Amino acid sequence: MSRFRSHDGTLTPHELATMQQAYEDACRKLGLDPSPADPNEHRHVRDRLAVAVLAAAKMGERDRAALTAFAIAFGLRNWHLPKR
Questions:
Q1: Strand stretches in 1-84, DSSP E
Q2: Where are the domains of the chain?
Q3: Mean pLDDT split into 10-residue runs, the chain, 84 residues
Q4: How far is CA 32 from the centre of its chain?
């Protein structure tokens, strides 16, 4: 069990913050605004990055850099995300 997990298995505020930061890092590394003024701008790409971060976290990953790298690598390999 992760050192950040609460006793009931829910995500802690620290875990959620780490996941959010990893998502934002992945977006920026791909040249995307994680919170664009137009929420539909590159929405499919941003949604897929978020899914990848969640998938890595479900597998137990808690390191921000690793979550970011996983999201980018998974996205590039499986969803043909733009390379930057």
A1: none
A2: 13-78
A3: 50 92 94 89 88 91 95 78 57
A4: 13
User: What is this structure's pTM?
Assistant: 0.80
CA distance 75 to 54: 13
Number of H helices, E strands in the chain: 3, 0
Residue with tokens 């597998």: 59
The two tokens of residue 3 are: 């050192």
What is the C-alpha to C-alpha distance for residues 45 and 58, in angstroms, rounded to an integer? Answer: 20
Could you give the C-alpha distances from 37 to 46, 60, 81, in angstroms and in order? 14, 32, 21
Residue type at 12 in one-letter notation:
T
User: Nearest 5°: CA angle at 53, between 48 and 57?
Assistant: 145
